[in-house]
Description:
Layout: E1 35-45, E2 48-57, E3 64-68, E4 70-73, E5 80-83, H1 88-100, E6 105-111, E7 122-132, H2 135-147, E8 152-156, E9 167-175, E10 183-187, E11 196-197, H3 198-205, E12 209-212, E13 232-234, E14 237-240, E15 246-252, E16 257-271, E17 274-278, E18 280-281, E19 287-291, E20 302-309, E21 314-317, E22 331-335, E23 341-345, E24 356-360, H4 363-371, E25 379-386, E26 399-402, E27 406-409, E28 412-413, H5 432-436, E29 441-447, E30 452-457, H6 470-479, E31 482-487, E32 496-498, E33 501-502, E34 514-515, E35 518-522
Parallel strand pairs: 18-21
Antiparallel strand pairs: 1-2, 2-9, 3-7, 3-8, 4-5, 6-7, 9-30, 10-35, 11-34, 12-32, 12-35, 13-14, 15-16, 15-26, 16-17, 16-25, 19-20, 21-24, 22-23, 22-24, 27-28, 27-31, 29-30, 29-31, 32-33
Amino acid sequence: xxxxxxxxxxxxxxxxxxxxxxxxxxxxxxxxxxxxxxxxxxxxxxxxxxxxxxxxxxxxxxxxxxxxxxxxxxxxxxxxxxxxxxxxxxxxxxxxxxxxxxxxxxxxxxxxxxxxxxxxxxxxxxxxxxxxxxxxxxxxxxxxxxxxxxxxxxxxxxxxxxxxxxxxxxxxxxxxxxxxxxxxxxxxxxxxxxxxxxxxxxxxxxxxxxxxxxxxxxxxxxxxxxxxxxxxxxxxxxxxxxxxxxxxxxxxxxxxxxxxxxxxxxxxxxxxxxxxxxxxxxxxxxxxxxxxxxxxxxxxxxxxxxxxxxxxxxxxxxxxxxxxxxxxxxxxxxxxxxxxxxxxxxxxxxxxxxxxxxxxxxxxxxxxxxxxxxxxxxxxxxxxxxxxxxxxxxxxxxxxxxxxxxxxxxxxxxxxxxxxxxxxxxxxxxxxxxxxxxxxxxxxxxxxxxxxxxxxxxxxxxxxxxxxxxxxxxxxxxxxxxxxxxxxxxxxxxxxxxxxxxxxxxxxxxxxxxxxxxxxxxxxxxxxxxxxxxxxxxxxxxxxxx
Length: 546
């Protein structure tokens, strides 16, 4: 049997020094001899430009390979699962068995990426067979390995963090709020239950630049498609609640004052002296996409692409829920604009104009039955806070879009991948490919001068581009001068539109994906109205629809 394996350091990441003018990376985030970059710049308006880059590495030589999967146990369910890496003892024993069966495996230790909240050192050991120009050849070998009793996956080595990237196609939009006279906003077009392509929203609004926004529901099994999975706010109104403490882009005063922060939400319904915690806004009671709410099963922690359940769930619905209300066991209460109960009954129907709705299941339904009689006042107090405990108050021109994880904090790479639920050190079957391999990514950042950076990188070989890992994305944002940066939704959702036309190459085989919310950079209205004034910040305490 082979001797113990040493953990190799991952490829170094190159940054570019911050300057008064936004730096342009001269090569791929992964440093290596042979890295080249070609950039073009397009000025769309004073204070708005888009840079298009093609990053290449002549030393890269990606191939198709067969990855032998390691058996693991899913953390919460205890069910059998499979991971791309396993323990050292598993890897060495597996390699010996493969050799006996006539294969020639390679064994490589894989270190933890540079996340801020995961263990250092060895993450696991990878076992692979071969390097093939054609995927069909790798598929044929994988079938033979499977017949020999192993679980396999066919991988492209160009997606590996420990290998050089061959090609990365990048778009960088830079918006300077000190110069730009228009506005920047997150929008769901007035309906959180709708899905639209980023470019179609941009074209409709006459946007200079648009990118996809936060995570959202994509399957009817998880609720209503399009509904945000995490905190969102549009036109100063909270449209969905946070799932744990996750990163968010806050666009204040129409994008004049922006910041990135981890946000939490607390919403409370009160009738007289009695109160009950609201756990959701504009989502199906009992279903919490990406988890992260108290009482959730199997976890109250954020968990990417997992839908948790809530037995005793109180959910509010606003006018932005333009869809049939969820039906099922429980109680429904309709409130007028003065927060007086105008009707109670079974769940269903629609949100009446100028009204809001509360739906309760389990103990929450019992509370509504006992305290929300017709004619009684039921107020709903909503509080948004950052991790410093500071209250985030929304004005009419404010919006919020959220995803995960944080990439850069105070100028340093700071990827809280475990805390935001995109990886799990106790379960390597969860999040490995999403976080640790190159993927299409959409990212947002702020530099020292307050400029907003909206960035996309194509991936999954769309146009040949391989994407970024989370750590590469963080390093790239830092190289642009970002002192704060976060990941927005990525994968097949990644899209950027310029002047209403799609400029990147989305990875879905069907083309550009309809998404939930988007971030749009809107030109100033052609009307001279004098100096722009900020909207007052008002607490959202008296009703969900306020």
